[in-house]
Amino acid sequence: MPVLRCLLILLMVVSIAEAKAMPSPKAHCEELPNSVLPIAKKLLSTHGEFYPFGASMKSDCAIGQNMAYDSREHPPSQPLIDLLHGAFAADGKTGAIIASAVVYDVRTVPPGETEKPTP
Known about the structure:
alpha+beta; 51% helix; single chain; 3 helices
């Protein structure tokens, strides 16, 4: 009987350890920005700009990169952002994805400054 008790306790400890090893919802939310920000930084440092792109997370937490295309060689950013938002919204409604991120290049006025920085 003591062997059976030890075995049950061991199984409970393993189950608890496995449950704690599962990522938290916060960790899942951080995966998308962590997957796209290095790409945006590299594009900015290499080219000084980039076209909008995105990433989405499926229910199994697999992350896929997404880009939009509207058949123009040099499209303005807003139509691409709209395409990404629309695609992610449609995929979210069907349950194909559980989260999404859209990344685009913007310039803002830094604190203490009066103008946006030039690229």
